[in-house]
## 1
Amino acid sequence: MARKTDDGADKTSAELKALRVQIDKFDLQILDLLNKRSTVAVRIGKVKADQGGEVFSAAREEEVMNNILAANKGPLEEVTLRAVFRELISASRSMQKVQKIAFLGPEYSYSHLAALERFGEAMSFLRTGTISAVFEEVQRKHADFGVVPLENSTDGRITDTLDMFIRMPQVKICAEVRLRVRHHLLANCEQTEIRRVYSKAQALSQCRNWLSKNLPHASLHEVSSTAHAASLVQSEPHVAAVAGRQAAVRYNIRILYNNIEDSPFNETRFAVIGLADSARTGDDKTALMFQTSNSPGALADALTVFKQNKINLTWVESFPYREAKGEYVFFLEMEGHRDDAKVKKALAGLDAVCDEVSPLGSFPAAKAEEE
């Protein structure tokens, strides 16, 4: 009996060894292909530099990712392939130029996570304290791109971002990131000991029902970001933070409760901003802002332009124009790219019925990514 067991163990060991030999062989092949791919990426960078082209191309990167996902036959899942090729593309991009990406910090805030999701780890990240500072860094060319929150599925528009588009209409949207936001309660004390809860205003709002039910005696305090809230847990007693999982890992804080957001579909959409928008991919959106005369039917006339051209609107927001009392700026997104014939026709029609129209850019439509 003992001999049969030994024979079985020897057979299993031999099989494992053979499989590991295959893995080692594949790893060397992958390494060789990665270096060959990187060599071509460097050559592409030189061609772009000679032509004055941009290193980051949201349209091209979307094409690369879609080609990979369409060819995938498993067993690797889409989310895994996206992560692998995001970092591969990031590394290739950095070999052409290490770009600087501005975001609302500190590190491991949701804006930082969105920046990592779009650009990967191989970039140089510039932390700022406000959304307006992100716009300033891009406008002054201190950063190549910026990442700013645009809207949340629970709380709606991000007013600071819309205000900055009005102030700096030359800044364009060149990509978007949709991040499914999972809020967690972080604390190094027990639930009954929590006296204060810190987080960004939007995060507290998105968890308000859970917090009122489970921490009715704790006071809520707004801070600049969820990551900053997590850092306060380390320095103050009897406090908790509403933040993401990465912030808990970064600051070594225990997660008391997972997924405390009131809506299971909680999602924040971020805009990647730069000084130029994106080329056409075939699955795009176009954003703009416009003003109409303060007269009956003026807004209806503007929106009718899109109905007449059979263009679907994906987002419409009204925003007070601070330079004139009682006036509003309207933000709008539509399906299609500015180079599409019917979009061109719609923009011309809109220009004819509005006082002012400011295109904010065309960009590839994004899928939601998990936090």
## 2
Amino acid sequence: MTYDLVVIGSGPGGYVCAIRAAQLGLKTAIVEKRATFGGTCLNIGCIPSKALLHASHMFAEAAHGLGALGVVVEPPRLDLAAMMKHKDDTVGANVNGVAFLLKKNKIDAFIGAGRIEAPGKVSVTAADGQTRTIETKNIVIATGSAPAPLRDGKGDVIAIDEKIVLSSTGALALEKVPEKLVVVGAGVIGVELGSVWARLGAKVTVVEFLPRVLPGFDSEVASRFQKVMEKQGFTFHLASKVTGVERSADGAKVTFAPVAGGDESVLDADAVLIATGRIPYTDGLGLAEAGVVLERGRIVIDAHFATNIGGVYAIGDVVRGPMLAHKAEDEGVAVAEILAGQAGHVNYNVIPGVVYTLPEVACVGLTEDDAKAEGQAIAVGKFPFSANGRARAMRETDGFVKVIADAKTDRVLGVHILGAGAGELIAEAAILMEFSGSAEDMARTCHAHPTLSEAMKEAALAVAKRPIHI
């Protein structure tokens, strides 16, 4: 059978691409090496981590937060096996939902490792070694990413056993709470998974190469976030590099030193999480043999997601841009529409990012540092959640909203939030920016009272230096 499109990879980018293509009338197939659909995000990433973040938050609230609200409970007891079952059930519901959608849209699924044999030909090798070849007019590569390796002071890769030295995969499947957890990397994955285990009783120490936490986020937000995490028990060693991890039967010793030079220090750990970022996953795809050009490990594409080889496209973590599931989804829709003769497009200036700690961190658009580096004349408005009525009622007063607007046109260039519900609140800013809205537009839009969203309005009012405290 010849297909109009074969998608390699069934993560958020891949399955959304396949479904949109099928909706537009293209005969579509999808290739997935796992036994279940959904890629890293649904199986061992976004979804299971959010399930554990929510469950651990409920445990921490029962232990420390409910008494102040007049809800008196016995000291809670952790049933980690039940919490992990909640995570697994959540994953199962999501991957089964994707399987249903693929079947509903009459998309043929092939389980096995996909490889581009030539333009228009994809081989699929199943777990039993059996290989079949699919013919197609177009190929979309959506194979996602994998954890980036960490090298020690000698340049050797620190081995991950998922028992003591963990990637994010192992950190989502621990059978007991580590007394001492060392996290290497203060990015999104490190602080999220560190939060899970800190809430459940672990002492979390983070070692970060850069002199700040949350690289890429607004520096003011990141600085305040660090202080909040420290109040929650986190310890940070910034501008520090790990030079070695020596494991034993029941733990490890982590050696680190200042990046600028200096004496080494040693941390004892029951578990070590390597959270130093992710790299594009292109192994076994036959890209070199097919002649597909890569740059720094990422597949090079043009403005229409096309590689240098006719009929071969790529989206998501394997191409330029932030490694975010929703960015991959938008690219999947866009490339499917392009292949169907429509005008698919992604606005990369309005891709939100969220850190699902408590409080959450969310952002969209330019940071204040970026705007200044680009020479933008800007006006900045801020509003603290400590002055928001709903936040006070919820006892969630940490953080603030920050709106960055063009000083001349008032067009909103970026919004940054540290606070409860930030991941939901940022959608308002994304919609506003998608339609080139101004701070005045947000300020004059009626927001329900009392809600956390009023902090968005107040920050927009503060751009014009006229907030009305709630």
## 3
Amino acid sequence: MLISNSTLHGGGYLDHAEKEIRDFVGSRTRVVFVPFAVHDRRAYAAKAQERFRDMGLSLTSIHDLSNMPRAVDEADVIFVGGGNTFRLLKGLYDHNLLVPIRRSVAVGVSYIGSSAGSIVACPTLKTTKDMPAVQPPSFEALGLVPFQISPHYLDPDPSSTHMGETQEERIMQFLEENEELVVGLREGSILRVEDSTVTLKGPNAARIFRRGEKPVEATPGSNLCALLEETVSRAGRVA
């Protein structure tokens, strides 16, 4: 489950995603939280623990554990929170967690990512908008899905006086150099990926970008596989 944003305007932390999270995890109760995207991991973990406790789930932050790979192996659910994507990916490399997470998801462990946590589920972090506050060893990420996500996607505002690139222009720049398809996830949007199905959840459409083609819109509730074509079907089971 790949969430565009952790907090939606007018609501609290993960409020807009609670129903989808509850349905996604089902009877699974043991959640391992990866807080590496923020500097104050203790405060972030406390916030996540309280929120998941309200959903009836037991959450343990991986930064409190001595054997992090084993914690991933034993988890029912892996939740990777948002923040700075460069810092998050560097943490995954520093603690040798990319392979254990890939392995766990491949055998059916549920993965939930939010914002930066959604981006690192992609092949690379190249569609992040974050400042490179730290330098990970590589831009290569988890590769749980074969497409890229651009979370917090904002449409161009014709009334804006801002003269910098729009998010659409930045994605087009990415596609000038890269082949991976990009899904622009607007605020409140969620991708639920199961087997060969990619379902768009939430109130907003998603914008699909492919190299050399005009962007297209995917409607809420639709299966994106028809738009993503065989790119997604080759991913197999990823959740």
## 4
Amino acid sequence: MDARIAAARQALGEECVILGHHYQRDEVIRFADFQGDSYKLSQQAAAAKGAYIVFCGVHFMAESADILGRPDQSVILPDLNAGCSMADMAEISQVEDCWEQLVALGITADDGKGLSPMTYINSAAAIKAFCGEHGGAVCTSANAASALRWGLARNPKVFFLPDQHLGRNTGYAMGIPLNEMVVWDPFMPMGGQTPERLRAARIILWKGHCSVHQRFLPEHVERVRTAYPGIRVIVHPECRWEVCQKADDIGSTEKLRKLVEESPAGTRFAIGTEIHLVNRLAKQHPEKPIITLDDAGCLCTTMYRISPQHLCWALESLVDGVVVNQIKVNPQVKHWARVALDRMLEIH
């Protein structure tokens, strides 16, 4: 399989760029021309020169690549089943219904005067477009604080989608107390909130989460500290607030990698993020003992769907002149999503 992938890559030459997210399995990411988190790969997609972008990630990432890419480029997702449970937690009709209720309450005007909509990049293109059209932007875990400041400079409130934990952790780190952040549950009347609480809140959080990072619990932090005195606990901001408060440091995927790389030899880490990245960091830094914060899994199953077989099939199809699993975003959605993504790139 490795030989077939290598042969197809060589045949395609510079016409094909392979992007690999950090959470990909080793046997796939080894073939990536560029590795990174969502934000870094969005930048690489925007700068790609080849006609084909093969995205070894999940659906929303491939959508972002299509939005930022040139009209003559084709974005390919090796397995269409590689989705994101967090992105699926914010459906556009639910978001539009929520917005209508907030408009009716006088919390915002329809054009976004009064409330800045902000969506994490882990969301569908339609949600990004909604934010772009209503004066908002996209953010990543790396620039979430800058994005929140950007949104609050324009309006007194921010509507943050779809990850409540990233929004809460970022807002709290900026000095916004927990009682000024409320969670909108799309399956409850008026989001499960009262008009008074919604009017008093500075950040309205969507009830969504990452199924991997939500698995980490405060007791996991306590357990590793007891077992390994002096261990440094670092976690992703998609983890629960209670976990982040017990950690030594919080950061995006890129920041977590940097913390490990810049630490002195002998530093012991327990890392609260997806297991493929943790294992890869452990292999890359044998001089620094690295373990996962919870050894009971924490695998991103949708990322894991991208296999060497899928990658090989996609590349060999391109060699044969056939584009498979192309991700194409509706032109109107693409316009407003591009507005929101461009704001993200400017904010960073």
